[in-house]
Specification:
The chain has about 300 residues and is an alpha+beta fold. Helices cover about 30% and strands about 25% of the residues. The strands form three sheets. The protein has a six-stranded mixed β-sheet with strand order 7-6-3-4-5-11, covered by helices on one side. Strands 8-9-2-1-10 form a five-stranded antiparallel β-sheet. Strands 12-13 form a two-stranded antiparallel ribbon.
Length: about 300
């Protein structure tokens, strides 16, 4: 079945919600990498959360969510664009040992160096325009709590998330209290009552129920007594945007001296995309061409180290 994003708003109150099932996309991500179960849990939860937050995009571009730190899990990256194309990857430290019950802090925040990053990257940038990036300390024991704290402090938006993931399923629920027109936050008594009631209802949802129940049924179970307006569903899916040109741009960013040094040692450069596993090779002629033509720096691509 196709993945589903279901948006809805509570009538006569500044409260919106979303339910998402990205299980098929999640299976595509896992088909390319084998992660320990605790890593699957947090990356699967991040996948659902990034899809939910993509609704905040007001431009043609992408939201990139990252968690990195100093534990056995060094990096988590999830990207979702305005067309709901998604990809995700995780990187573990060399010889990493991950216990079966490892928590998020134990995975990435062992010495308190964990960071949470959200990048908003417009596709068609205006001259001089840069991607917006917010970087904060990792504040929370779960993916949901980290994002809730970020949204409240950085975006001044009350946001609640319920996330669940295992090897087969990735689902999530978001509730958000929105400002009135003009960006002014004026909570009426009805707004507050609706928000409190919606959060109370959603808090009855347990991870096991979320993972075993489809989006349509969850909507009916949770909010059947509420007056809500439901929008047409959307359908996230896996798509990696890596290209040979982007890998070439990455090599240009390393600089000609470092690339030539690697060529002397290796004979040719090989790069694998961490998101989809696509293999790219550059021989000395290819690399020389990179530094004799002008090419703009393109968007981030997570790639494995250069190797034979």
């Amino acid at each position: 079945m196709a993945d589903t994003m279901q948006k809805f708003v509570f009538e006569d109150a500044t409260v919106r919600g979303e339910l998402v099932d990205v299980s098929e996309t999640w299976k595509q991500v896992q088909a390319r990498r084998d992660y320990p179960q605790p890593v699957k849990t947090v990356l699967g939860e991040m996948l659902a959360a990034t899809a939910l937050l993509s609704a905040n995009l007001k431009f043609n571009g992408a939201i990139i969510m990252q968690i990195y730190g100093d534990g056995p899990l060094r990096l988590l990256v999830v990207e979702c664009d305005s067309d709901l194309n998604m990809r995700a990857t995780a990187k573990l430290a060399d010889n990493a040992v991950v216990s079966d019950d490892a928590t998020l802090p134990e995975l990435v925040n062992v010495k308190g160096q964990g960071r949470f990053v959200i990048t908003l990257d417009p596709k068609d940038k205006l001259p001089g325009q840069q991607a917006y990036q917010g970087i904060v300390p990792l504040d929370g024991d779960t993916v949901a709590t980290v994002i809730e704290n970020y949204m409240l402090r950085s975006e001044q938006l009350d946001t609640k998330l319920w996330l669940a993931a295992d090897s087969e399923v990735s689902r999530g629920l978001l509730l958000q209290k929105l400002p009135h027109e003009g960006g002014i936050v004026i909570d009426t008594e009805n707004d507050l009552a609706t928000w409190d009631r919606a959060v109370m209802l959603a808090s009855t949802l347990r991870p096991e129920e979320m993972m075993s129940t489809d989006v349509k049924t969850l909507m009916r179970r949770l909010f059947w007594e509420e007056t809500i307006r439901v929008f047409d569903p959307q359908h996230p899916h896996f798509l990696c945007t890596c290209t040979r040109e982007k890998v070439g741009t990455m090599l240009q960013m390393l600089g000609q001296e470092e690339v030539n040094s690697a060529l002397e040692e290796l004979g040719k450069l090989a790069v694998d995309c961490d998101f989809c596993g696509q293999h790219y090779e550059f021989d000395p002629v290819d690399c020389a061409h990179l530094f004799t033509t002008e090419a703009p720096v393109e968007t981030l691509i997570a790639a494995s180290p250069i190797k034979h």
